[in-house]
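Task 17 of the worksheet. Students: predict the tertiary structure of the chain below and write it out as structure tokens. Keep your answer in the requested format; marks are given for formatting as well as content.
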Amino acid sequence: MADINTDRTDYPYSLESQPAYGMLNVKIPAGKTLKVEASAMAWMDSSLSLKTKMGGGLKRLVSGENLFISEYTASKGDAEMGIAPGSPGEIGHFYLEDSKVYLQNSSFLAASPDLEISVQFQGFKGFFSGEKFFMIECSGTGDLWYNTYGGLIEIDVTDNYVVDTGYIVGFTEGLTYDVHPVAGLKSTFFSGEGLVCRFSGSGKVWIQTRLASAFVNWADPFRRVKKKKNDND
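Model answer:
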């Protein structure tokens, strides 16, 4: 491992290749289990045992989103594993103490076993309305790791703060929010801007410095398009 992080944690860990292509290396103590986003395992000690299950229960089914979590258990002594998120970006860590954190659907990376991970359906008030109508609730006491697309910025909110919904990675409890168009409907349509969230209260908000849909729009003109043959050819 690289230098071990000295933040409060029950699982010694290090973050490598930050900030552009972060990877999480974790030591799982003997007899302990780590919850990991199902497709994120990059490497692991052969002594780790694996079980994959579906998370979110009924709320997951209502939202239509699949949340699969793999559980890695160090049944034969301490063991290490490497965890890589799907998007190029930065990895953050937060230690919950009988509290809650809300993440956008693609930002959950790993968590200690005592944290409850569930999907919260948001309906038409959907927090991430530009993306999908649900978010992941992480509650309890323990370690939580999350990832971004692009760099990570942590904001301490003490009153009010406005963020484009697509750039929000997550936020802590204690914050309330209201989602609305950035301007009037007409100006929103012509400007290409979407929804923004006005936070109020006291807590932390994590934002990412890049937006996947914006990158797709930027890259679209560079795609190689296969020309269709004319009927007379």
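Marker's comment: Residues 179 and 197 are 5 Å apart (CA to CA). The mean pLDDT is 81.
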